[in-house]
Amino acid sequence: xxxxxAQPALNxxxxxxxxxxxxxxxxxxxxxxxxxLHLARGFIDPDTRQHQISTQSLFDLASVSKLITETSFLxxxxxxxxxxxxxxxxIVPEFAKINPRPxxxxxxxxxxxxxxxxxxxxxxxxxxxxxxxxxxxxxxxxLPPWRSVYLLAADHPPPPPAPDQTYATERWRKGLSAMVGFxxxxxxxxxxxxxxxxxxxxxxxxxRLQACRLDQAVRELVLQPLSLSSFTYSPExxxxxxxxxxxTELDDHWRYRRAWGEVHDENACGVGGIAxxxxxxxTAADVARFGQAWLSRDSRLQISPELRASATRQHASGQYRLxxxxxxxxxxxxxxxxxxxxxSYGHTGFTGTSLWIDPHRQLVCALLTNRVFHGRDPDGIHAxxxxxxxxIVQAVDAR
Length: 399
Hints:
Layout: H1 7-17, E1 24-31, E2 34-42, E3 59-60, H2 65-78, H3 88-91, E4 101-102, E5 106-107, E6 114-115, E7 125-126, H4 133-137, H5 149-153, H6 169-179, H7 196-210, H8 214-223, E8 232-233, E9 250-251, E10 257-258, H9 266-270, E11 280-282, H10 284-295, H11 305-311, E12 327-328, E13 345-349, E14 353-358, E15 363-369, H12 379-397
Antiparallel strand pairs: 1-2, 1-15, 3-11, 4-7, 5-6, 8-11, 9-10, 12-13, 13-14, 14-15
Helix pairs in contact: 1-12, 2-7, 2-8, 7-8
């Protein structure tokens, strides 16, 4: 089966958004185990138009990286090295060193302005020893959604990426030291507060449980077993030419350069480029293959059927409906569009990436863009994502 039947509608949609919403796009769709669409449009440098995007181009996955960290943790659960209810402090003891921890204010990730604590929790505190790994997976830990870790990890931005650059271990050490001392944003377990800080700490737990650095841990636990060879942190440092790496935003706040060959996310960049919440780059085909491994219960991914089913079932709600790491389709205005089945699951990334899986249709869609190239306005990419997924579902259902 080919996706030629969907091409006219997709072409019209892409033409409306390229290059205004994003200058580069790649997508891979798998239906019933067969690839039915694999496209790449746009240019690495939209001004000179010298290097066209190909299906081998690497995109900054942003928060889609979380799925690899979280899946790695679930592999460790299935191996008996840890449980969902294990307190984080059992693995990262310094997390509970300051006890109790206050419930304090937060920080806006876009303006970077600080704001006061919720009046309902003013003067309250929590015991960090009560935060479990399941709380991290479901973003119900009460930890702050965002803090400027990158400014605490070093007194200056990292240099531009270069091949064979040494990993800055000290940056991660200082960043971690800051994270284990931040005030909480609310009580443990009361609601979903989507938090990068929580998944950065989960990444540290994965690394310690596997007794190696996080990049090696996810490679051993997920990427190598599934033969996902394009996934990499810090691609330019690892020798991948810039002409095969899709650039993202012009950072006029901290790095004062366009993020190209390095992760867009400031916190991931600031701690050395390797973090649980962001930092991975990959092709659309490999992101789709990862989704297919979950959908088909690929035995190479050593997670029991029971745990897989639990991971894609709702465990917490609030800002989002969440399974164990997976976002579940919103009941209204979902980035997966209106036609994906209600039991669909996936994840989005701030740079303009997403992976959505419809188990009812046996459908996997990996959609990668660099929508932050022009800035951070979310309206264009949200409308595009919804329309894209609806076109794919309509085409599949019309077979």
